[in-house]
Specification:
Layout: H1 3-17, H2 19-22, H3 29-37, E1 58-61, E2 64-66, H4 69-79, E3 86-90, H5 96-102, E4 107-112, H6 115-127, E5 133-137, E6 150-155, H7 164-168, E7 170-181, E8 187-196, E9 199-208
Parallel strand pairs: 3-4, 3-6, 4-5, 6-7
Antiparallel strand pairs: 1-2, 7-8, 8-9
């Protein structure tokens, strides 16, 4: 089995294995198609491209990682996107999650606090031809209010709490997907559904392990 096919197969197996937690024994076919299209090896340093299609995280420099493919697919699925959506991502990292979302929605805005990562991701995404991703080197805790409200927000680093600015910038009826917990400790992936201007419903999905969200907050 080739590397990409093995990765997709591993995602499907893990989806079935975790379905008692997520309520999903399979993921959205659109998400799986995006996972097939985007070349994950292009988002890894040369020294780690050998493990690009393993179902696990990998280092990308600056103490950060590219997320496990299953987690990228699951979080993309939980956003419940439409092709006309505008999505905000907090934590560009390598740019891989943004590239997956770019296959699913009209526009992706992505914020990365680490300047070197933001510059590298910008060059990479431009080289690969992604025209519907706009990056910003800033503190993602405060979101990107200029383009709000968003049809979905995804956070790819663990926060100790749900940032209020992100809730404010989320459209009513839309989802926020975020890992919550202490750095390098137990964390939970949370699905936040904004049901009214002043009301959200939180759902715990499953235990996760993410690098911490950083910034002045």
């Amino acid at each position: 089995m080739k590397g990409l096919d093995r990765m997709l197969n591993d995602i499907e197996i893990e989806a079935r294995y975790t379905c008692h937690l997520t309520g999903k024994d399979s993921l959205d076919p659109k998400v799986m198609a995006a996972m097939r299209i985007v070349p994950r090896h292009e988002f890894l340093p040369a020294d780690f491209q050998y493990c690009a299609y393993e179902n696990g995280p990998a280092p990308i420099g600056s103490g950060q990682t590219i997320s496990q493919p299953y987690m990228v697919a699951l979080m993309s699925d939980l956003l419940n996107t439409k092709s006309s959506d505008v999505i905000l991502e907090i934590g560009t990292g390598s740019g891989y999650q943004a590239a997956i979302l770019a296959q699913l929605v009209k526009q992706v805005y992505s914020i990365e606090i680490i300047k070197d990562l933001s510059k590298t991701a910008s060059k990479r995404l431009k080289k690969l031809g992604y025209e519907n991703i706009i990056l910003n080197n800033d503190d993602g805790y405060y979101g990107w209010p200029e383009h709000a409200p968003y049809d979905g927000i995804i956070v790819t680093a663990a926060a100790t709490h749900i940032p209020a600015p992100l809730i404010d910038q989320l459209r009513v009826g839309a989802n926020l997907v975020i890992p919550i917990g202490l750095p390098y400790n137990y964390q939970e992936l949370i699905l936040v559904q904004k049901t009214a201007p002043d009301k959200v419903v939180n759902q715990k999905i499953l235990g996760v392990s993410f690098v911490p969200l950083t910034g002045k907050h």
